[in-house]
Amino acid sequence: MSAPNTTPQANIPEVDEAEILADIKEWAGIESPSKDGIAVNRVVDVAESAMETLGMEITRRPGRDGFGDCVIARSPWGGDGPGILIMAHLDTVHPHGTIDEALKLEERDGYLYGPGVYDMKGGACLGVAALRQFVRAGRETPLPVTFLFTPDEEVGSPTSRDLIEELGQANKYVLVLEPGRDGNKVVTARKGCARYVIRAHGRPSHAGMRHQDGVSAILESARQIAKIEVLTDYETGVTANVGLWTGGSGANVRPALAEVEVDIRLPDDASAEATCAFMDSLSPVDPEVRLEIEGGLNRPPYPKTDAIAALHEQAEALALEIGMESLDDTATGGFSDGNFTAALGIPTLDGLGVDGDGAHTEEERLLIASIKPRTQLIMRLLETLD
Ligand SMILES: [Zn+2]
């Protein structure tokens, strides 16, 4: 252990790691599964009050369709012009009670375990801490900063997408505090995602006495699944997954209804267009079956543009100054709200949150040692972007 540095260097901001860790524990201690808007709003309350304390100008937009609220917090400095949008979602994939048994909130071997610590309450708290440091020091960033907290990212942001796009368009840069990637990486490209539900309507009959009168919706479903799964091409990066299949009413009944849910990941606009056109054109192999196709592109692809590459280069230079060994970038098949702003052409840098592992599992954990440098990096970005 080295002695505490009492003479901070100009380009290495001071950060209080213990304070941030306490924040993360508080936020993660409030379970917030996406579909329980009341539970999510308990964390939204905490985020809102943290922003209020910092003197940010708050707008809280009530939730819709059972989801939680959105909070927009804008810095009182920097004027009305376009600035920096910081995004964090406060919902998690973990159901209520996860924290009691399966994934207790606890420190172990340099990690903090707990639901949402990594994806992404940890990142949200780094963003709050970065702003707090500026406010405490009585300093302003060159550009105005808008912090957006959302309640429904893990289910595709059905009620916050419009706000994300609106605020994205009103800003010059977007920083997304989703988790960092293996080996201190940030994210500069994400695949798009299309989701479909395909229902096959057949005709029921007694499987013993009247087999010939029935038309099997399950058989038709199987044929459609075969057409969809072969869209997968690891070379181009398109992947198709039929992840859910339900149908039928009993072993002795020819099945009248079958339903599949499909998730397709798409690396760029061209593959998205071609694949969605293919999905919309699916037709039944058995003309007696009716197919119902619902869905489409849910998240547009987030390709690495020149502007995004430049943003990453800037972040990398700042990271080296802070003392990080590297800040490589990576592309991922997982999507985020960054897809929405990147698709609009707004330079978007993602994966700026905490390092760690085990997102969406009962091994979710954040690397405590990443709290300090990553907060410093966010601060340096906020004070150098102009
Ligand atoms: Zn996330």
Give the class from helix and strand content and strand pairing. Answer: alpha/beta
Total tally of structural domains: 2
Ligand roster? zinc ion
The major pleated sheet works out as: 6 strands, mixed
| Rounded Rg | 23 Å
Q: Return the CATH class of the largest domain.
A: Alpha Beta
User: What name is given to the CATH topology of the largest domain?
Assistant: Aminopeptidase
Number of helices: 9
**CATH architecture label name of the largest domain:** 3-Layer(aba) Sandwich
The total strand number stands at 16
Kindly report the spatial arrangement of strands forming the biggest sheet: 1-2-6-3-7-14
From N to C, what is the helix and strand string? HHEEEEEHEHEEEHEEHEHEHEEEH
- Which strand-content bin applies to the residues? 15-25%
Structural shape = elongated
- Mean of all residue-level pLDDT scores: 95
Distance separating the two termini: 37 Å
Query: Percentage of helical residues?
Result: 25-40%
Uncertain spans: 1-8
Name the CATH homologous superfamily of the largest domain: Zn peptidases
Summarize this structure as a short list of keywords or feature phrases.
about 25% strand, Aminopeptidase, 9 helices, single chain, 2 domains, Alpha-Beta Plaits, binds zinc ion, alpha/beta, disordered N terminus, elongated, about 30% helix, 6-stranded mixed sheet, about 375 residues, 4-stranded antiparallel sheet
Structure overview:
The protein is of the alpha/beta class and 386 residues long. It has 2 domains: 17-190 and 302-384, Zn peptidases (Aminopeptidase); 192-299, Alpha-Beta Plaits (2-Layer Sandwich). The protein has helices spanning 17-28, 37-53, 117-136, 161-169, 217-229, 269-280, 306-322, 338-343, 371-384, and strands at residues 57-61, 70-74, 84-89, 106-108, 111-113, 145-150, 173-176, 186-190, 192-201, 239-247, 257-266, 290-299, 329-332, 348-349, 356-357, 365-367. A hairpin with an 8-residue loop joins strand 1 (57-61) and strand 2 (70-74). Helix 1 crosses helix 3. The longest helix has 20 residues, at 117-136. It starts with 16 loop residues before the first helix and ends with a helix. Zinc ion is lined by residues 89, 119-120, 153, 178, 336. Residues 89, 119-120, 153, 178, 336 line the site of zinc ion (ZN).
